[in-house]
Structures are given as C-alpha cells and as structure tokens.
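Final report, Chapter 2: Outcomes

The project's central promise was a pipeline that accepts a single protein chain and returns its three-dimensional structure in a standardized token representation, suitable for archiving and comparison. That pipeline is now operational. To close this chapter, we reproduce one record exactly as it appears in the project archive, with the input sequence first and the structure output second.
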Amino acid sequence: MTSIEIRHNLFDNPEVSGTEYKTVELIIKKLQIYHPDILTSDIKDGHGVIAIFKGKKQGKNIAFRTDIDALPSGHRCGHDGHTAILLQFAEYIVSGNRPETGSIILIFQPEEETGNGAKKILQSKVLQNLHVDYIFGLHNLPGYHLGNILFKYGTFAAASTGFIAKLEGKQAHAAYPENGINPAKAVADFILALDSFKNDDISNFKQITVIHVNIGEIAFGTAAGDANVMLTLRSFTNKGMSELINNVTSELQQLANKYSLKVSYDFQDKFNALENDDVCVDIVKAAAKELNMTTESLPEPMRWSEDFADYCLKWHGGFFGIGSGENCKPLHNPEYNFPDELIDIGAKMFLKIAEQAMVD
C-alpha cells in the first residue's frame, strides 16, 4: 500500500487510545519492507512502534514522532495522516537517504488523546539506552493555508488537565432540608469564584471551562447530599498550571469548610505545556526555507494540548504545524478529514529537518 492508501485504511479502521492493535500491525508490516536496524513494538502497557535507522559512524541521534490513535468519532484529528507522513519519511530514508552518522529514530506513539502515550514511549528500553539529541513532531492545522509551515518559539501548545471535584454533605427529605447538608450553595459559590482565577493575557494565560455539574438525585422528594463538578484547566506554562491548580483546590477547600462538606478531587488527561527549543525551531525554519515552503509564525500558542510536551521535558524538541487549508473542518469536528496533499509535504519536511539537524 502507498502512504495515501495506508492513511485511508487507518481512517476506515480507527482505533482509540489504548486499543491501537491493528494500527500497529499495519505500521510494522510496512516498516519491515524498509529493514530498519531496530524495529520494536515493545512498549510498556502500550501499542506503539519504534524504528531506528543507524549510520555507519557515531553522530547525532534525531527522533521524529507521530501519534497513531483515533478519537471515539474516528480519525477526526489527523493522526491517520500524521502516521502516513512518518511512513513516507521512512521510505525516503531508505531511498538513498540513510544517515551516514548517528541515527534517525521513528516513533509511532499511541494514546496521545489521553496524554498517556509519550510517557509510555519514554519508558521503552530502546530509548532509555539511547542519547537523543533532538526530537521533532508536527500537527496539521485547519484554518491556515494548505502546506504552510507554522512555527512558534517558546510554548506551542497549552498545558491542560481535567479536574473532578466531589463534595459530600448529607441527603435529607425535601420537606425537611434543614436536616441535611446540601452542597448546592458551595457549588454555586465555587463556579462564580472561578472567574477570578482566569487570565486572558497571553503572557500569563489561564482558562477554566466548566464541563459538567451534577447535584443530588433526580427526585423531587430529596434534598441533595452530594455534588460533582468537572472542569478543564488550561495555561500556556507549567508554572501557570500549578498556580491555577493551587487556586482552584484552595477555593474548593475553603468552601467545603464553610458549608461543612467533605471534599475530594482527582485529575485526568494531564498534559504539560509544549515548550519548543529555540534551536529546533531554527532548524524547522531552515528546512522549510530550503524546500521553498511558506513559513508563518503563530501569533499565540495553541490552546489545545499535546503530549509531545513530555519529550521536550527530556530532550531538545521542536514541534510545528502544517496548514491543512482555510476551508478544512476544525480538528475533532465530525466532518474533519486529513488532506492527503500534506503527506508528502510533511515527509519532505522531516527529511530536510534530519539533514539540517545532523550538521547543526
């Protein structure tokens, strides 16, 4: 199958985070044709693939990562296209572009949508025993001209986390609410207080989105005795996220004390802020220039999150975008479909980045 055919196969057979079995089988089957020096799917508690093409002499080790999981609604974020890009890049590597020195590492990562995949990849024995000089990744970006290369110094994508608060009081008969402890007022005060922790300034951006609220039972004969509040917290920096968490949890505890409630909370889908290395961004820009591609600086970080951030906390990382068209449906939209034209563009960018990074 060609890279485009593989992309269509993945689109027709999407697998959500943690279930990427057939996706991995397809990737391995394709990579085996290229005979990488190392090919493994030995990812702890995950379903990813790592392929390494080695040079004859020691040198820089340059990694490239793609995400392979789908959303419950299907491949509505373009990970099928990202996977096809990395497979096309592998074909370019063995077509007269194998590294003379160092190595090129291809990472096909599971579970990006949940924020768990990068952590699992980083635990692989292959990578733990290998010094990685640089790592690069990309994401298609609807709303930007098709094929434009979008770069961003500093933070490329926000830190985010799902926050679940549970308040426990005492249920009572609706005719005698004074005999119970109803968390409704605490929930109302909590939601109103959240605005004081937000910040729209890009330099200190903090956002709180109320996702779901549940108070008591659906029964007119009872006064509520418990409540759950779900939030999504976002910040453009990891420091800002820590501040946001501290503010929200402190406010919650104060209200619990005020209204005599027990409180507990949990976090889900935790993502660090994706902070690019300046040198890596320079390499991306230089590669685009050599390919005569139009580059565009993003005016502000993306508010969505990317667990590529975890690689950047360990290695020098560069993450960039490729415009998928002004009329392309937004990411996660039920009608979104990855533009096939980007497969070759992305693969050629990776190839040129590898060349630039090896001599940088």
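Archive annotation: The radius of gyration is 23 Å.
This record, like all others produced under the grant, will remain available to the consortium after the project formally closes.
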